[in-house]
Specification:
3-stranded antiparallel sheet, about 475 residues, single chain, alpha+beta, Immunoglobulin-like
Length: about 475
């Protein structure tokens, strides 16, 4: 197998867990300091969308089984996979819009990012990439690109081309030999080969780590995992995103106690999001009179994820904390977060007047485009847990391929807590009785202003309730 061909294959495996937002295990390269912030470009380092172009056309669609063929035996696994983002990596509405309306036109305008036209498909439509079908037909055309990260993509990956796992550097060897995790599995249709690589976080990292043309790690889920407590404990991505359960991997297979479920549930799964972070809020004093200053502390904990929250495409995801007080008569007051004074904090506090994403206008040729609301519909003064991405002109962007630097990383680290404080001078007309203060943690997969401008379906960016908590203060007459 040629080296370019191996590189293309390697990219595909990573996508499988990248889309699921997996918490990677055992990454190979040292993680970037703190945030995968503006890493210095290394001429020898892989570049997202550039490193695998030589693999274009080295395979044919016919080299890979269609998912329906796999489903004839692996029924339950296939049905799970159909419902996962892994199978929708090319047909998902925002991915289609971002690729065809931003990445492809930008690739035609700017030689530095020209590689994204092919490279995006290294993880989102791997078989199309290998077949040289670039850009693939739109999903409405029903081509095999719609298979996304299909069964045969992952189960033909034999390894990776280098360390670290990044930019779809997987090695794919299609054929009758299918890569699996067991040495005793048999099939009447194909040969099964035990491959320990499929059990590792490095396997997931081939798509869940991405370095762009500026040398910036714009996706580093596996590197985050490696630097955190889950990575050090050996809890790999698959443990959370492919949990084991009793059952059969195939119709004719034996009953096993630990069949890996192909759920790949992550940032697009309400069940995975629910409670992924916890919040608790308490007052400094339990009683107050009108006119008294009140102070509250909210503690937010990344209690479940083995990587930072948000992770993956952090440039477009928004996690925010909203605090509101309500007196016994139902009158309410919104509490803005108290500033801490760290560098770049302004990007972590919602400001309806702040504009960003001006590069959308550059890409689409929109004269006089001033940008969009940086924080979308997030209420003014709410704390946002995010990692800002900036283009060459220092403007905040949601185009990871157009990111020249990263801002302050104010995301939630695994098994770590952060305290936020809130102040309220109790209004003179506050009703006696309980003053209920509620802290609510919300998540959106895409900044609402960008979603609305790009005409993304509402369900793809609607706020999701992650967690909430209440505390009370007694207002004295």
């Amino acid at each position: 197998m040629t080296a370019p061909r191996r590189l293309a294959g390697a990219r595909l495996a990573a996508l499988v867990l990248a889309l699921a937002g997996a918490a990677p295990a055992r990454a190979a390269a040292p993680p970037p300091a703190a945030a995968p912030a503006a890493a210095s470009p290394d001429p020898a380092a892989p570049r997202a969308g550039l490193g695998g172009d030589a693999a274009l056309g080295t395979r044919k669609y016919a080299d890979y089984e269609k998912p329906a063929a796999c489903a004839s035996c692996h029924v339950d696994i296939a049905r799970q996979h159909e419902q996962a983002m892994m199978s929708q990596s090319y047909t998902h509405a925002w991915d289609e819009i971002e690729y065809f309306e931003l990445a492809v036109p930008h690739a035609a305008k700017n030689p530095k990012v020209a590689g994204v036209k092919a490279g995006c498909n290294g993880c989102h439509a791997p078989i199309a990439f290998l077949a040289g079908d670039v850009p693939p037909p739109r999903p409405e055309k029903g081509s095999r690109a719609n298979e996304g990260v299909s069964c045969d993509v992952c189960h033909t990956i034999v390894g990776r081309t280098g360390d670290p796992s990044v930019n779809f550097n997987w090695i794919s060897e299609p054929g009758r030999v299918k890569q699996g995790t067991r040495g005793d599995a048999t099939s009447p249709y194909h040969t099964v080969k035990a491959n320990p690589f499929l059990k590792t976080a490095e396997f997931c990292g081939t798509c869940h780590n991405e370095q762009n043309p500026w040398g910036v790690f714009v996706k580093s889920t596996q590197l985050e995992w490696k630097a955190g407590p889950h990575g050090k404990a050996g809890i790999v991505c698959q443990d959370c995103h492919m949990p084991p359960a009793p059952g059969r991997a195939a119709r004719q297979g034996p009953e096993r106690l630990d069949v890996r479920q192909h759920l790949f549930h992550g940032a697009h799964d309400p069940g995975k999001l629910a409670g992924v972070a916890e919040v608790r809020i308490h007052p400094e004093a339990r009683e107050a009179e009108p006119g008294d200053p009140l102070r509250f502390t909210a503690t937010v904990v990344n209690a479940k994820a083995g990587h930072k929250i948000p992770s993956g495409s952090a440039e477009e995801r928004v996690l925010w904390l909203h605090v509101e007080a309500k007196d016994s008569k139902g009158r309410s007051w919104h509490l803005p977060v108290s500033r801490k004074g760290f560098p770049g904090e302004a990007f972590t506090i919602s400001d309806p007047a702040a504009l960003a994403y001006q590069d959308i206008g550059d890409i689409q040729g929109l004269t006089g485009f001033k940008g969009l609301a940086r924080d979308g519909a997030v209420p003014a003064g709410d704390r946002i847990f995010r990692l800002p991405y900036f283009d060459e002109q220092g403007r905040m962007t949601i185009a990871q391929w157009n990111t020249a630097s990263l801002g302050t990383d104010y995301r939630l680290a695994p098994l770590s807590a952060v305290n936020e404080t809130y102040a309220l001078t109790l209004p003179d007309d506050a009703a006696p009785g309980p003053l209920t203060v509620t802290a609510t943690l919300w998540y959106s997969r895409l900044v609402s202003s960008v979603a609305e401008f790009m005409k993304v379906p509402a369900e793809e960016y609607a706020p999701v309730l992650v967690n909430s908590h209440q505390t009370t203060v007694t207002v004295l007459p």
